[in-house]
C-alpha cells in the first residue's frame, strides 16, 4: 500500500513540470490581488477565493456532494489569511490537516498582526509557515522554491521555520526564550 505522501506526489504532476498551483484565501480584495500577482510573477497557477468556506468548497471538504471531485483538485500549496469573518485561517488550517486527502499539502498562514500565541498555535497545528503581511516577493519565491525542491521532513522544516522567524524578528526570539524559562 502506498504512503499518503507518495499518492499525493503522484497526484500533482504540476510540480514536476515546474508549475505550482496555489490556492490563495483572503477576505480582502486588495490582499488577494497582491498575493495573486506575486504568485503569478513566481510562475504559479493561482486560484483565489474570499473565505475559508469557499476554500473548503473548492477543495471538496464542505460535505456537499455537488462540490468539485476531490480527484480533480490539484493544489500544491494553500496560503490563507488568519483573520477572516466566518471561518478564520486557523480553523481552515485545522480542517485541511484533518483531511486524509489534503493533510500533506503545505499551508501558509498570513497575518498583519504579529501575535506570538497565534503564530505558535498555527505552527503547532501544522502550518508550514506563518508570514507577516505585507507579503513580499522574496517570501513567495522562498516558499515556491522550497515546495519545488520538496525539502526536508516535517520536523526539520518546522525547526528551520522557527529559526528563520526568530532570526528575522528578535522580539519573537526573546519572547520565545522568556516563555521557555517560565
Describe the model.
This protein has 182 residues and is an alpha/beta fold. It is 52% helix and 13% strand. It is built from 9 helices and 5 strands; from the N terminus they run H-H-E-H-E-H-E-H-E-H-E-H-H-H. The protein has helices at residues 4-11, 13-17, 29-41, 52-59, 89-98, 116-125, 137-149, 154-168, 170-181; strands at residues 21-25, 45-49, 77-81, 107-111, 129-132. Strands 2-1-3-4-5 form a 5-stranded parallel beta sheet, sandwiched between helices. Helix 3 links the parallel strand 1 (21-25) and strand 2. It is globular, with a radius of gyration of 16 Å. The model is unreliable at 1-16 and 151-182 (pLDDT under 50).
End-to-end distance:
45 Å
For the largest beta-sheet, the strand count, sense and barrel status come to: 5 strands, parallel
Determine the mean pLDDT. 78
Helix and strand element order:
HHEHEHEHEHEHHH
Q: Assembly type of the shown chains?
A: single chain
Query: What is the number of beta strands?
Result: 5
The shape is: globular
Beta content comes to 5-15%
Poorly predicted runs are 1-16, 151-182
Number of alpha- plus pi-helical segments: 9
Helix vs. strand class: alpha/beta
Strand order of the largest sheet: 2-1-3-4-5
Radius of gyration: 16 Å
Give the % helix: 40-55%
Compact overview of the structure:
The chain has 182 residues and is of the alpha/beta class. The chain has helices at 4-11, 13-17, 29-41, 52-59, 89-98, 116-125, 137-149, 154-168, 170-181, and strands at 21-25, 45-49, 77-81, 107-111, 129-132.
Amino acid at each position: 500500500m502506498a504512503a499518503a505522501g507518495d499518492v499525493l506526489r503522484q497526484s500533482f504532476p504540476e510540480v514536476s513540470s515546474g508549475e505550482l498551483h496555489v490556492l490563495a484565501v483572503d477576505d480582502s480584495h486588495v490582499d488577494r490581488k497582491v498575493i495573486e500577482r506575486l504568485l503569478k510573477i513566481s510562475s504559479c497557477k493561482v486560484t483565489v477565493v474570499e473565505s475559508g468556506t469557499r476554500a473548503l468548497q473548492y477543495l471538496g471538504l464542505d460535505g456537499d456532494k455537488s462540490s468539485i471531485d476531490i480527484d480533480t483538485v490539484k493544489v500544491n500549496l494553500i496560503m490563507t489569511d488568519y483573520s477572516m469573518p466566518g471561518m478564520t485561517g486557523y480553523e481552515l488550517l485545522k480542517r485541511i490537516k484533518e483531511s486524509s486527502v489534503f493533510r500533506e499539502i503545505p499551508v501558509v498562514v498570513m497575518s498583519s498582526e504579529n501575535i506570538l500565541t497565534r503564530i505558535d498555535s498555527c505552527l503547532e497545528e501544522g502550518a508550514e509557515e506563518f508570514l507577516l503581511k505585507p507579503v513580499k516577493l522574496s517570501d513567495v519565491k522562498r516558499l515556491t522554491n522550497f515546495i519545488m525542491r520538496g525539502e526536508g521532513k516535517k520536523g526539520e522544516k518546522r525547526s528551520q521555520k522557527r529559526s528563520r522567524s526568530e532570526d528575522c524578528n528578535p522580539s519573537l526570539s526573546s519572547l520565545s526564550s522568556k516563555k521557555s524559562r517560565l
